[in-house]
Design a protein that fits this description.
By secondary structure, the protein is α/β, with parallel strands linked by helices. Helices cover about 35% and strands about 20% of the residues. The chain has nine helices and 13 strands. The protein has a seven-stranded mixed beta sheet. It is globular and about 50 Å long.
Length: about 270
């Protein structure tokens, strides 16, 4: 029997739906705003499908396309990344606001506070994300960027790519090279094993560590292992122990909490 094709990131969400569609998959906290958003596999899949349909139908994103993602660690970022990979396209990893590689992308999706310098670059396709906890649009915005939140709502809850997704196509474009779509899953599986993430883990992820390590670490490695995520932005250190208890956290990435396993550290 011939070997099966490598999995792509989109397959990881399908696997999460099969495991438990209703269980929390991504829980997001922002301590600067008091925000808490919880998404089941079903809810995240809905956002991913809408995002993928938006990218495909409005921008012709597909295999060979490059989508720049200038977003913080956020639940909407997870939807944008998985939506891009569902189209068979590559994500351009942008290190910061002064990154000069945005022009390499077919579409740029950026947080609203990062739009001003991008508007000056005359990018052909630019979308802004308010990152509002209720998914609302960019209130008061009058610039040239299209509003992700307003446009994504009108797209379908089920996604089918116009072209077959090839695991051998680029999936993540870095300053130092690239990973294929299949290579992303392979790298995530290797990292999950090295860190000690196991099925059923509830992983509390530190924003600083996530930004430094990239989406293979903070998003794909837990997914490939069958774990769920608790993302913490602007975390107040004094409240993390209570958060870990309330969210039934079993492991941390980039944080040391008494009584909780720290991934990548010897027991």
């Amino acid at each position: 029997m011939p070997p099966s094709s490598p999995r792509t990131p989109a397959a990881l969400l399908t696997e999460a739906l099969r495991r438990d569609a209703a269980a929390p998959l991504v829980t997001y906290y922002d301590d600067s705003s008091g925000e808490r958003v919880e998404l089941s596999a079903t809810t995240l899949a809905n956002w991913v499908a809408k995002t993928a349909n938006l990218l495909q139908e409005e921008f012709d994103v597909g295999p060979g396309s490059v989508v720049a993602v200038a977003l913080p660690v956020h639940w909407q970022t997870a939807a944008v990344l998985l939506g891009t990979w569902s189209c068979g396209a590559a994500v351009l990893d942008t290190a910061g606001e002064d990154d000069d590689r945005f022009a390499e992308a077919d579409v740029v999706l950026a947080a609203a506070d990062r739009l001003p310098p991008l508007e000056e670059q005359g990018l052909p396709e630019l979308m802004g994300l308010s990152l509002h906890p209720m998914g609302l649009g960019m209130a008061g915005y009058v610039g040239p960027a299209r509003d992700f939140a307003l446009e994504v709502r009108g797209h379908g809850d089920v996604f089918s790519p116009w072209q077959p997704v090839d695991p051998g196509r680029p999936g993540l474009v870095l300053a130092t090279g690239e990973l294929t779509l299949g290579g992303l899953v392979e790298a995530a599986a290797e990292l999950a094993g090295r860190l000690g993430i196991v099925a059923g883990d509830r992983v509390l992820v530190d924003e600083r560590t996530a930004l430094e390590a990239g989406p293979v670490a903070w998003l794909l490695a837990p997914l490939v292992a069958g774990a769920s995520l608790v993302l913490s932005r602007a975390a107040v250190a004094s409240g993390l122990a209570h958060r870990a208890e309330v969210e039934r956290v079993t492991a941390t990435l980039g944080l040391t909490l008494d009584g909780v396993r720290e991934l990548g550290r010897p027991a």
